[in-house]
Amino acid sequence: MRSKLILLSVLFFSLWSKPVLACGNFYGHTLDGEIRYTHDIYLSATMLSFDTDRLWVHKRELEEKIKEAPQNFKYKSDLSLVLMKLGMTDSALSILRPLIKLYPTEYNVVANLGTAFELKGKLDSALILIRKGYELNPDSHRGSEWIHIKILEAKIKAKNRNPIWMQKNPIITMEELEQRLGEGVRKAEQVNLDFNYQIRTRVPFTPAPNEVLNNLLETLGDFNKKHGTYEQAILAYAYSMRFSKNPTYNSKIRGKIKDLNLLMKENIRDHGLNPEFHSMLIRSEVDPMLLVHGLDDYAEHLDSIYRRNQSFDSLKLAKLQLDSVSKALEEKEKAMEEKTQKQTKQSYLYLLAGLAIGLSLGIIIKLLSKKRSA
């Protein structure tokens, strides 16, 4: 354990020497040693739930606008989404069902109704509407709604075929992801952006544990191990465990993290992870020990360095202790000297006082003797 802590200290050293950055972009490491510009994949605490206080304020604002402009369907569609975020899906449906009849090709109305059906478990209806929305506006949600469609298809398979379908199969296969790559590194980055957007959108609606999210995140980890960066892969694996309470599943993911770290050790020779990545780990509250999971051999090497440094530190500590004792003795001697000088000074004062008293008595006796003689 100690050796792993030392490796962790090496990995994190640069963080404490530089300010923590809030930027969402950094340079990561591919497992063949290339340094690549990438976007982070992280979920801060504020992303895990909706700001209900703010939503209630927005709800009242929209209701006032609807009173002022009752024919404005956009306010009503926006209100339906706020209601869904507040957990009031039935109220949202009561708004959207009439709207879809009046505006069957309005993207927001179509997409919101599809989301409402999904939240109510009406998966077939939801899939029809989300597909239609993607056809109407393929650029919505930054072009990531193809993932939403795959999620609904997987949910329907699990519902109709086998309740544990998602535990046995990826929602999106590696082959499907690789078909989206084409040529150029930026295609791989676009896949990451699409996953990132969809995951962040779903998280507040689906608190942990959630098999859809851990399935997607495991796939994202596999994809980045092969086509992306170490940093993106380990974050995706870490988050997949956060959305699972299954010990067997989490053990499998830890095995993947171990393999990933061993590849990182072999190919990222300096183990110099970017400070922005460390910053993101702190914001994400990811267990930092995952960075050294499976690196016992490398950690043992660092442990020998630690022991040498510890010997030096012990000598340094002994010297400091000796210096401290010497200083204490000097201060004690000085205090004793001052005390002696004070006592000597007091003795002189007592002697002078005695002499003065004696002289005074002698004079008085002499005067009394003369007076008697007279």
Short description:
Mean pLDDT is 81; it is low at 9-23. It contains 15 helices and two strands. The chain has helices spanning 2-16, 52-68, 73-85, 89-102, 107-119, 123-136, 145-160, 165-168, 174-179, 185-202, 211-227, 230-242, 247-267, 275-284, 296-373, and strands at 25-29, 35-39.
Please provide a written account of the structure.
The protein has 15 helices and two strands. With 374 residues, the chain is an all-alpha fold. The protein has one domain (23-286): Tetratricopeptide repeat domain (Serine Threonine Protein Phosphatase 5, Tetratricopeptide repeat, Alpha Horseshoe), CATH 1.25.40.10. The protein starts with a helix and ends with a helix. Mean pLDDT is 81; it is low at 9-23. Residues 315-346 form a coiled coil.
